[in-house]
Every structure is written in C-alpha cells, then in structure tokens.
UniProtKB/TrEMBL annotation:
NCBIfam families, per database record: sensory_box (TIGR00229)
Protein name: histidine kinase
Broad EC category: transferase
Coiled coil: 177-222
Organism: Chryseobacterium edaphi
TM region(s), chain numbering: none
EC number: 2.7.13.3
Superkingdom, natural source: Bacteria
Domain PAC: 440-492
Gene Ontology MF, one: ATP binding
SUPFAM superfamilies: ATPase domain of HSP90 chaperone/DNA topoisomerase II/histidine kinase, GAF domain-like, Homodimeric domain of signal transducing histidine kinase, PYP-like sensor domain (PAS domain)
PANTHER family noted in UniProt: HISTIDINE KINASE, TWO-COMPONENT HISTIDINE KINASE
Gene3D superfamilies: 1.10.287.130, 2.10.70.100, 3.30.450.40, Histidine kinase-like ATPase, C-terminal domain, PAS domain
Length: 709
C-alpha cells in the first residue's frame, strides 16, 4: 500500500492499465528535455507563478520530467504529491487556497516548511484516454484561478502531451531504425559472407573452367579412343558371342523367376536334344522330361538364394528325339545379380561326361569280372614298383606265398621266400623282360612260413614312363604246386609204365624166341611151359593196357555205366577163377549171400578183382582171403580182407590217389599205382563209398558200398 496523506482514495480503478500505458512512453526516470522544460517555463511565465512541473504519476512516485522552480528535485512521493489527486479527474484540479482544503490538511507540502498554498494541475491525457501525469503550476501564496486560466493550462498540458506522443513515436521510429540498422548490419555481414563465398565460388569456377577446358581437350582426344574401343568392344562381343555359340561346352542363360531360356549355345541344344525353338520358353516347358528330376527345384533355389550350385557327374534323363537317354554332367548354376544384389538370371554351364561315366562303368564291370576270374583261378595280382621295390599285391597273391593279407610283402620279402637256387633265375628273367619289353614268365619254388614248399608261376608285363624307363611290372601269380606234383607223378608214371610194360613184353619176346627155336620139335617138354609163360605175360600186358585205357577213359570223363540188378554173392563166386585154380589162396565167401544191388556188373567185378589181386600181391602168405557181404539199411557193403602185413595208417589216406604206390620195406612189387584210383572212381560214379581198414601186422580190409536206390 502506498503512503497517502490526502485521506481520500488516490488510486483510480484502471491504475494497472494506466501504469502499463505510462510504460509505453518510456519517459519516467529519463533526463530532462528542452522541449518539456520550455513548456513548464512558459507556464510559470504565463501564470506568473514560481513553480511549474511536468509530472508523471508512477505506481509509488511522481516523476518530474520538467521542473521549473523546485530546485533539483526529480521526484516526489505519490502519497504526498498533489499531482496524484490531479490525475483522478479529466478536468483541471485547482486549490486556490490549500489551507482551506480538508484533504490537504495532512499534506507536508502544505503544512510543512515548503508552505504550498496554490495548486492547479491539468492532466496529461493520452490519445486513448489514460491520465498519466500533469502539467501543474504551484505558488506559495493563495491565488484566484479563472476559467480562462484553466483553458490555458489545459492547452499547455495538451501541448506537452502531444510532445510526449511525438517523443514516443520518434522513439519507436528510432527503435525501428535501430532494428533496421541491425538488420542492415546483419544483412551487410551476410552479404559480405555471400560476396566472399561468391568470390570463392568464382575462383573455383575459374579453376573448374580451366579443368573443363583441359578436360574438353582430353574429351576430344579420348573420343577417338572411345570410337576405337567401341569398335574393339563390338568385335570382342561378336567374338564372345560366336565363342559361346560354338564353345565345346554347354552354355545357357535362364532369366526371370520362371527360368526362361534366353541364351542357349549349339552345344547345350545338342545335349538337350532340342533346337532353337526352345529359346524364349521357360525351361520347364522346353524340357518337360526334367519333371520329377531334381534340377528345376535346384535352379529355383539358386534363383531364390543367389548361391551358386555345382553338380558333379550328375545323372540326367534327357529326351533325345523321343528317346529317354541317361546322361551325366559336371555343371554349374551361377546366379547373375543386378546392382541391388537380386538374382535376375542364371548362367548354366555344363560339360557332358556321359562317355567318361560309361567307360568308367564298363571298366568297373571289367574289373569285377577280372576279380571274379582272378578269384576263381586263385590268381593273385601284383604291381611291383621297380624303383622302390614296393609291391602292391592282392590278398590272393599273398596267400600264394603263405602270407596273411596284412603281411608286409615287398621285393626283398619275395626274395627271402623264394628257395635260394631260384632267386637269380627270377631276377634274370625280370631284367630280360624289362630290356626286351616282353612278358615275364617265371616258375619258382617258394618256402611258406610253415616250411611247406610250393611252386609259383608268375607272369607280368613291364610298364614304362614317357622317357622309356621301366617303372612297374604288373601281373599275376598262381600256386602251381598241384600241377607240378602231377607232372612229377606223370613223369614217374611214364617211366614206371614203360618199365611195367617192358617186363611182360621182354618175357613174351623171350618165350616166343625159344618157341621159335623149338618149332621143329613140337613135342619138346619146354613148349607147354613157354606157352604158359607167354600167356601169363600177355595177361599182364592186357591188365596193364586195361588200366591205361581205364585211366584214359576216366580222365576223359567217358566211363559209362551199364547198370543191372544182380546178386552180389553170385558175382563174387564167379570172379577170380585164376586165383582159385592157382590154389595158393582160399577165397572164403561170407555174409548176406542174398543181397542184390543195382550196378554195372563188369565195373564192380573189376573193383573186386583189383582188391583180390592186391591181397594176393601184397599179402602173399595170407592163406585165406575173405569176401564179405553186408546188407545195411540203405546200402550193401562188400569187403575183401587179407591177413597180410597190414598198412601204416599214415599212408592210408593216399592209397586211392592216382599213381600212389607205397614202399614195402625194400620189397619190389610191380604195378602202376592206378588200380585203387580207378576202383574209387568207379565206386564214386555209383554214388558209393570206398575205403580201407588196416593196421600193421593185422592185415587189411578194403571195402566199398553201393547205395540201394
Ligand atoms: P598197384 O598197381 O601199385 O598195386 P594200387 O592202386 O592197386 O596200385 O595200389 C596202390 C598201393 O596200395 C599199392 O602200391 C600198395 O602199396 C598198397 N596196397 C594195395 N592193396 C594192399 C594190400 N592188400 N596190402 C598192402 N598194401 C596194399
């Protein structure tokens, strides 16, 4: 609350707005100005008063913009200044004698030392009706103030107000000018900067211009080059096109999601078995035979993922003029991408390898066949590296040397296995084969790790490198021990056979020579003996010839059986008449005399004769020879038992082998070692069995069985 000496309200209702309006004039607390001082002075002169003020009533104080006669005072308290009352009324406020005014009774200006007695103040009214201050005159003595005085003071106040308005508008103008100035300054700065920039740009432009000029020169130069390059490009494009179309590799481009055939060279058309009409068609439509095969899904996937697909010897079924053919390809599906990295096409490059695959398959079949053949023939295969001595050998090859499949088997191992006297011969044969480029054929004896001896036949062919140096020998080996043994046996047999044949022939020859000498003496006592001798020799010869013939028939597989049902005892009774007549041995028939068999009578008789003859030959002291017939459930067994020296059980397994003849403690027996072999063959052909039961010192019982059905 402001101080109030008047005892009445001095704050008008609109004081708040009034103060806002006052602020707008920017006049309070500003230095004195000549124009306002001039008006106040004019007022003192007109009204002949000592004091005149141009005051502005602020919220708490009254500011004196012009002060004539009041010393240096700049302001007064609103509650004490009479101007505070003057702005409450639009009319001029006049106190002709202050001492008579009740509201001024407490006013210090009236009641104090100053001694104010007269006051007249005309309000300063703004153009919009607010009372912001006063132009007042003051005197220290009471005076009269006429209506014309009022009018003059009002006029002066209005002039002052006009001045205030003018001042304000000039202030605004100055403000605007200042703003404009600032703007101008800024603009100037901007302009400067812009000018500087422009200058820089200009410089740049000049430089660019120069560059352009140079470039221009270059352009004209490079134009020629471009033309040349373009020509070259066209040529190489043409070349590329012709290369692609004639390339020996299948090439095609499939575009878009539906994989339309855009490019297809001659080769791809050939392998597809199609012509140029497939161009522009989706691959699915152009090659309907691909349906159900994995290739279209693979292509679609390459298009989708943009990842290259490489196919290795892929199997493709293609329709070649109505013929679905199995083809094989190595191929690449390469995605072609645009700048955004999206696949727009697929390049298909394929190399047909059908021939290679077919050859490979044929080779595999051949290899398999060879493996089977090698296995069947018990042939071992080997590959000897001539520089390292390493041998790459099959399981069978190692088995031929008595080695396990995982045993080490190189050239030095081979040399150790070969019996020493055959080593150099083999090396020599290998050298000759390499030197002459001829096949290697060698036979040598090897000693297996179990000490057994085996014959090996090795064959091979040397291989050479491009410089003509032998690198490998590749070939096969086979164990020929059995054959070798047969050969030895055959050689032995031939010498025995010729010896055996020679004996009766020599004897026959001698008998005939003697008979020849006695032909004039038909009654000579020697003649019957010589005839008997000759007959015996002839018998022997015919037996030998029979055996040889039988052997020949057996080895040729020509032993034919003529079967009939006969009683075994009858057959046994009828055989071996010569032995019965000779009387040295008694043939005792035993067992089931009723038993019958269905067999070749001649051949079975031959077997029994052989058994009996052997008993006579090898058990000469056995007086009895038993012929035993046993009828069993499903077969009939016939045994010929002697009571001779018996046979060592160690040699019993070999008695029925071809050419086998046992050693009888230095005693010599004629024979070919064929009788029991031929007998066993005859029995086997009847589906029966043959064997011997014997012990040294207890005689031997040779037996055979013939099945009943
Ligand atoms: P060979 O012509 O030598 O008699 P075989 O095949 O008939 O030929 O007989 C083979 C061998 O069996 C004879 O060499 C003989 O050593 C032996 N052998 C055969 N029968 C008897 C027997 N009853 N007692 C002893 N050894 C026999």
């Amino acid at each position: 609350m402001i101080e109030n000496t008047f005892g009445i309200n001095i704050v008008p209702e609109n004081d708040k707005e009034r103060l806002e309006v006052l602020k707008r004039y920017k006049i309070t607390n500003t230095p004195s100005e000549d124009s306002f001082d001039g008006i106040a002075r004019l007022a003192t002169q007109i009204f002949n008063v000592p004091i005149s003020l141009l005051s502005l009533v602020d919220a708490e104080s009254v500011f004196f913009k012009a002060n004539i006669g009041m010393g240096t005072a700049k302001e007064a308290n609103r509650g004490k200044s009479l101007c505070a009352l003057a702005i409450l009324d639009h009319e001029v406020t006049v106190f002709e004698d202050a001492l008579k005014e009740p509201c001024l009774m407490s006013n210090p200006n009236v009641m104090g030392d100053f001694g104010l007695r007269f006051y007249a103040g005309a309000p300063l009214i703004t153009h919009d009706g607010f009372l912001i201050g006063t132009l007042c005159i003051i005197d220290k003595k009471a005076r009269e103030f006429s209506p014309s005085d009022r009018k003059i003071l009002e006029g002066l106040a209005a002039t002052a107000m006009e001045q205030i308005e003018l001042r304000r508008s000039s202030l605004d103008t100055i403000d605007e000018l200042q703003k404009a100035n600032l703007l101008l300054t800024n603009t100037e700065l901007d302009l400067k900067a812009a000018i500087e920039e422009l200058a820089a740009i200009n410089e740049e432009m000049e430089a660019t211009n120069e560059e352009l000029h140079t470039a221009n020169e270059n352009v004209s130069k490079s134009y020629d080059l471009t033309v040349t390059l373009n020509k070259n490009l066209q040529t190489s494009e043409l070349r590329l096109k012709s290369f692609i179309s004639k390339a020996p590799i299948a090439f095609g481009i499939l575009t878009g999601e539906n994989l339309t055939i855009e490019v297809a060279n001659d080769m791809i058309l050939k392998v597809w078995g199609k012509d140029k009409t497939v161009l522009g068609k989706p691959i699915e439509e152009a090659l309907p035979e691909l349906k159900g095969q994995p290739y279209i899904p693979i292509l679609q996937n390459v298009f989708k993922t943009g990842i290259t697909y490489i196919g290795d010897t892929a199997h493709v079924k293609l329709d070649l003029e109505g013929d679905i053919k199995d083809s094989y390809f190595d191929f690449i599906y390469e995605p072609l991408k645009n700048d955004e990295g999206n696949t727009i096409a697929i390049i298909v490059i394929a190399n047909e390898v059908t021939d290679r695959i077919i050859k490979k398959q044929e080779l595999e079949i051949l290899n398999r066949q060879m493996e089977i053949a090698l296995h069947a023939g018990q042939l071992g295969s080997y590959n000897l590296n001539l520089s390292t001595g390493k041998i790459n050998s099959s399981e069978q090859c190692k088995a031929n040397y008595g080695l396990e499949h995982d045993s080490k088997f190189d050239f030095d191992d081979l040399m150790k296995i070969i019996v020493p006297e055959y080593r150099d011969a083999l090396k020599e044969k290998i050298n000759q084969s390499i030197e002459n480029g001829t096949a290697l054929h060698a036979e040598y004896l090897v000693k297996w790790p179990d000490e057994s001896l085996h014959w090996i036949n090795a064959a091979g062919l040397p291989n050479y490198d491009e410089n003509g140096n032998a690198t490998h020998i590749i070939g096969v080996t086979v164990d020929i021990t059995k054959r070798k043994n047969y050969e030895t046996q055959k050689d032995d047999f031939l010498s025995i056979a010729s010896h055996e044949l020679k004996t009766p022939i020599t004897s026959l020859k001698a008998s005939i020579q003697l008979l020849n000498r006695l032909k004039d003496k038909p009654t000579h006592e020697m003649i019957p003996k010589l005839i008997d001798q000759s007959a015996k020799s002839l018998d022997k010869l015919s037996t030998l010839v029979d055996e040889l013939l039988n052997l020949n028939r057996l080895s040729g597989g020509n032993l034919e059986l003529t079967k009939e049902v006969f009683t075994v005892s009858e057959m046994l009774n009828a055989c071996c008449d010569d032995i019965r007549i000779a009387g040295k041995h008694r043939l005792v028939l035993k067992g089931d005399l009723e038993a019958t068999i269905f067999a070749d009578l001649q051949r079975i008789d031959q077997v029994v004769v052989n058994f009996v003859n052997n008993a006579v030959k090898y058990a000469p002291l056995s007086e009895e020879i038993h012929l035993i017939i046993e009828k069993m459930e499903d077969r009939v067994k016939v045994s010929v038992k002697d009571f001779g020296e018996g046979i060592d059980h160690n040699i019993q397994p070999f008695l029925f082998d071809r050419y086998f003849r046992a050693n009888h403690n230095g005693k010599k027996y004629s024979g070919l070692g064929l009788g029991l072999y031929i007998s066993s063959e005859i029995i086997k052909r009847h589906g029966g069995e043959i064997g011997v039961q014997s012990a040294v010192g207890e005689g031997s019982s040779f037996w055979f069985t013939i099945p009943l059905n």
